[in-house]
TrEMBL record, chain A:
Belongs to the iron-sulfur cluster assembly SufBD family. The lineage of its organism: Bacteria, Bacillati, Bacillota, Bacilli, Bacillales. Residues 99-170 form the SUF system FeS cluster assembly SufBD N-terminal domain. Residues 176-406 form the SUF system FeS cluster assembly SufBD core domain. Pfam families: SUFBD_core, SufBD_N. It comes from Brevibacillus aydinogluensis. This is Fe-S cluster assembly protein SufD. InterPro entries: Fe-S_cluster_assembly_SufBD, SUF_FeS_clus_asmbl_SufBD_core, SUF_FeS_clus_asmbl_SufBD_sf, SUF_FeS_clus_asmbl_SufD, SufBD_N. It comes from the Bacteria. GO terms for biological process: iron-sulfur cluster assembly.
Automatic annotation (TrEMBL), chain B:
SMART domains: AAA (SM00382). Keywords: ATP-binding, Nucleotide-binding. The gene is sufC. This is Fe-S cluster assembly ATPase SufC. NCBIfam families: sufC (TIGR01978). Residues 7-249 form the ABC transporter domain. It holds the Pfam family ABC_tran.
Amino acid sequence: MSVDVQLRFDREAITEFSKANQEPAWFLEKRLAGLKAAGELPLPALEKTKIDNWNFDQYEPFVTSARVSAATELDDVVKAQIDANAVKSLIVQKNASPVFHAAADELKSKGVIFTDLATALREHGELVQQYLLNVVAYDEHKLTALHTALVNGGVFLYVPKNVELDVPLQAVFEVAGDNALLCPHVLIVAEANSKVTYVDTYVSGEGRNMVANSIVEVYVGPGASVQVASVRSLSKDVHDYTFRRATVDRDGKMEWILGEMNDGNTVANNTTILKGTASSAATKTVSVGTGDQRQNLTSQVQHIGTHSESDMVSKAVMTGEATTILNGITKIEKGAEKANGEQAENILMLSEKARGDANPILLIDEDDVKAGHAASVGRVSEESIYYLMSRGIDREEAERLIILGFLEPVVAEIPIDEVKNRLRQALERKLG
Amino acid sequence: MTAVPHLQIKNLRAKIEDKEILKGLTLEIKGGEVHAIMGPNGTGKSTLASTLMGHPKYEVTEGEVILNGENLLEMEVDERARAGLFLAMQYPSEISGVTNSDFLRSAINARRGEGNEISLMKFIRELDKKMKTLEMDESFAHRYLNEGFSGGEKKRNEILQMMMLEPKICILDEIDSGLDIDALKVVANGVNEMRSPERGFLIITHYQRLLNYIKPDFVHVMMQGRIVKSGGPELAERLEAEGYDWIKEELGIVDETVNANV
């Protein structure tokens, strides 16, 4: 099958966008290879979720916006995610344009690169080329291929050896306007013994029929420590696909904190490859299913290194007629001796019509390991409500406290206060 | 709010599923009084506590409970609490993700009503003071409500809540179970600090031991779902020394529940 003639983009449009951004030739080649593959590859196979009828290729990929000179001029939905008066290191992308960039002086003096992807391709092309699309391959399936063809922004974060950053770096991605596409590629490289926290949020403005298709790749060097927190609060008019993947070297640590707060259909896959000896991964996810949205959320860890450790916790609250499939996959490869993988998926059902599936999957090819899983699907306990009410709290408030409390252990981990507060607000909004 | 509280329980009957547990219990508690209810296991002591609080599993089939002229049985659980009733539970729930201090503030503010919320500074001051009395580590304020608490820690936490909420009628359901002697003294200390003419207590216990530290004004013996004997503190001492058999004999009770439902 060749590329569908109905698409609103083609080789010419892609080439034009690439040239306008002065991208290196190798990157344009990748894009065009992606475009070709997109026409040939199937959609990813997802547990219990069919996405054939979702929108994954009907959009205008390169809607541009003007840059703003101060954070206070950003769109309100963006400003809500930041402390606009005290911006240190922040990248904001709206549709296909980087609209704001600030980097703390500390970054430059320490040799840290924190820039939008287009700039990175121009100014640090060789470094980017070395890492880009190596952890996630462009031709894994139709969605990675489309992403590669249509990348319209993103972030490049490079932290040199032994550099530790205490203040989180932040990015906000906004999709807005009918048929807009948000297609960022986030590439994080943390060299040996470095330490960094990156926080991003995905928001949407007015508009219908929007799509987000993002890839996050993280390289955690030996002894390095990377924390990525991501909160997605896209409207029901956005179909969102995201593939996040980290590869972790010896003694490296990768931590993910994910708030899946979209109102629309969502596919999110979060994978950590524990390559090195004694590498470790922690993944914490919260989600609230509302309305009639469909979500397929997968947390996955692949153990290759010996003594590697992982811990995955996913919590979802289901309301309305929403469906959420919560997959946890712990894969321990032959040779990963003394590996230890734990996972837990907990779903709280608030509606008879909602559907929540917790699927713990353990795939173990090595004998000398520890692995465990715990999954539960339940309702708010009457005994707990009684206890809170016995202290004078009314039923509605008691339920609210219990539901928010169910998610709080993950929410509390979000490293930027504005983002944490927004996530709490998103929870309150979704839980009505 | 200086009115002396008055709780009247009249001929209360209650059942769980289809089993009648309370079989016509009558008791009156006024501000300034400490009543102790003792009795063998399985005679309905905890059922009385849960029924007064309004636990959904218990159904009242007959009788009245009046608190300061208001019909308690027509109120929801939270309304009973706001009317001044407090139950220190034998098995408090663990609530993940809700910190002790956030929970306490919500509870205090629920009682005070909108527009009259307690100031954060005042709240912290009160909480610090009361946690000191109960010899609780500061970290308890920020831990999730009862989650991972030991039995003794849960009991202290119940008393902490009682001290913060300043109820009119306090029911303590086997607050001494699972406490060592030092913890028992600390808990008793907290309770004694709260004794006042504006507050009444109903202390449910299995053992006389607790009553060495919280001196009751009245002691009642409960058997077969009703109060069968009442007296002063000397009654508790006699029960400790001689057990319950003499009462059964005196009243001609063949009490199956004592041995059957321990």
